[in-house]
Amino acid sequence: MSVFQYAARNSQGNTVNGNVEAPNEAAAVRQLRAEGLMLTQIQEQAGAETSVRKQKEKGKSGKIRLDDLVVFSRQFATMIRAGLPLIEVLGILSGQTEKVALKVVLREVEKDVEAGSSLTEALEKHPTVFSTFFKSMVRAGEAAGMLASILDQVAGYLEKTASLQRKVKSAVMYPTTVAFAATVITIFLLTAVVPTFKDIFSGLGGTLPLPTRIVLAASDFIKEKYLVALVIIGAAFFTFRWWYQSPRGRYRVDLFKLKMPVFGPLFLKVAVAKFSRTLSTLIRSGVNILSALDIVAATAGNQVIEEAITKTRASIQGGETLSKPLEESGVFPVMVTRMVSVGERVGSLESMLSKIADFYEDQVDTAVDGLTSLIEPLLIIFLGCVVGFIVIAMFMPMFKMIELMGG
pTM for the complete prediction? Predict the structure, then answer.
């Protein structure tokens, strides 16, 4: 059992301080609420059991992920819909969440709301945790008195976004892993295996075949000038990173992502699905189209898409429809712009955008499955070619020597 020090208000509104013994903080919170106390602060007293508990919680610390926010939004919506006061909901959520970083943030949000801030104002103090989209949705929910419904929409949106991210990672992770394995195997062969052959070849005399000379030169370079190679790779990495951080560099890289072979169509489908889902969710929650496009542009994740959305917003502000500037941008597929145009004409833009998002999310599923099936044999062939070239290059002088001996 652990001992928790708390500050709370009783039913008369007076401040009460004291200690409570419980197996964990969530149990302590439940126990105090059952006694009719409204918690304002609770903290575990230092001690041996506290240290043990902190060790156990190490695995629950770290970056707050989308999945954490999905659970938070669902639970928040359920308790608000049940009629619990906002401060009490925040207290319960901060007490029961397992992610330490989120627990700290929610406690701070609870204190700010209790001090008189709106929920949106409290969330705005934590921009690294709550995105512009999240805060805008909460603001719309507070203004319309539909916070529970809006939070359900936020949770649904975040679930779709997290699912998309996992699919893209799964598509990119496999070739990255195989490429890394190929690099490690190649370096091992060049530094540990090839040098043993070099000693044998030195006594043969004559001119070695070109593939053998290439492999031996690569082995010598890696063994003797690996520091130079590391410096070159490091300089290239930091130069690219510096260039990518500039607006022009990021635009060029993001444009290349959309046009690159194999992966380009996948990245475009992901971008279209995210654009459609975000805009649909914002419009459904009552955010006006111009503010919604600002948020969509800020959360696009691709400079090319962001620029196209920004130009679209400017055109709408000038009296244009949504579909025309999207079509003129040349980024969005024809099907998307036509469906948006139909949605505008019949007054069901939000519904049409949702259908577009559903379609492209299914397309991402199909594309990931197809890429996995296509890339796997290609990478195996590539790895086989690299290793095979080194092996053949090492044995070519021996084959030549055997021929000479036979002659």
Answer: 0.63
